Amino acid sequence: MFEKFDDAARSALLMAKDIAAKFNQDHINTSHLLLAVTGYTSPEIRWHNPPGISPKTEAVIAALGTTPDTVIGQTVAAMKYGTSYDDGRHHPFTPNLKQVLEYALRASMMLGDNHVGPEHLLAGLARNSSGTAGAALLRLGVTDLKIHTAIQDSTPAPSPTAARPCAVYLPVGKSIFKNGGKIYPDLATAQAAHPDQDIAPFVIQLAEGEFFDVGTVHQRFSSWGRFASFSDAFAAAEKFRDVQGADVQIRILVPDVTELRGKDSAGRDVVLGRSVEYTHVKMMSRIGAAQPAAEAASA
Q1: Cβ atoms within 10 Å, residue 1
Q2: Other CB atoms within 10 Å distance of the CB of residue 189
Q3: What is the helix, strand, coil percentage profile of the chain, to 5?
Q4: Residues with Cβ < 8 Å from 95, sequence gap 6 or more?
Q5: What value does the mean pLDDT take over residues 110-130?
Q6: Residue 291 scores a pLDDT above 50
Q7: How far is CA 99 from CA 20, 52, 110, 118, 130, in A?
């Protein structure tokens, strides 16, 4: 399961353990994870640089009509301090939290995402209505279905059936399919980045179901937005150019559709549904943070 978790989701799980320590509890429960996902911190928590809330999760919470501080307030108000935390012991997930992680994976699959991020953890927390986190979210009128809608609304996706061309620009002689090669949405942007080089247009033909995926890279790629055009993806990537000092990348992902088959009431083979995963990268363009001087000179 955890191989699909992105860096932000993994950090949230680690942060949840430290939040459990703050509340002197020898287990990790749904409230601890909800506080981690929404960016909670305090002087007693051991993280020197708390990961905070991811931009994607913050956008989803805003789309729900509330704020991270409001969610944190509702959650902390219902929590109690324990007396049994031991830093040298294994601290298990509660049954509710294990169910939340499973729900988060399902939410990611239902939404056609190729990873589990903090926004999917939030959806899993809301679906687990028997947990303290689910109860806190319900008091705010937040449900898993509303979170699914907010994730989709904050992640514009292209039509799943349209095949479409997209013009981009790059220096003459550069390969558009070279790993990490830089491409630009218009002639002026390309000329500004490469003033001493000739610029040439290139048409990318997106096949059915393909889209531009924008994300940051630390040790692995963490996706936070889908776009139908390279110009929209480039504009979004530029806004996050210096987020936590990470490289920002734009990728074209290729859908891998799997039919889920079963039997109907008459025993006939039927298609129950389809799952879509995006594991193949067709092209990647790096929208880096500030380049070292030597690299900038040779770009």
Answers
A1: 10
A2: 16
A3: 40, 25, 35
A4: none
A5: 90
A6: no
A7: 18, 24, 16, 15, 10
Residues in the chain: 299
Cα 48 to chain centroid distance, Å, stands at: 23
Neighbours of 85 (CB within 10 A): 16
Kindly report whether the global pTM for this prediction surpasses the value 0.90: no
Structure tokens at 166: 């997209």
Within 228-281, where are the H helices? Answer: 230-239
Q: Using an 8 Å Cβ cutoff, are 21 and 29 in contact?
A: no
Tell me the C-alpha to C-alpha distance, in Å, between residue 112 and each of 4, 100, 152, 274, 279.
13, 18, 10, 10, 11
- Alpha helices, H only, the chain: 7-22, 30-37, 55-63, 68-77, 95-110, 118-127, 132-139, 144-153, 187-193, 230-239, 293-298
Separation of alpha carbons 287 and 24, rounded Å: 43
Q: Which domains does the chain have, with CATH numbers?
A: 2-153 (1.10.1780.10), 164-298 (no CATH)
pLDDT for the residue numbered 255:
79
**Quick one: average pLDDT of 162-186?**
79
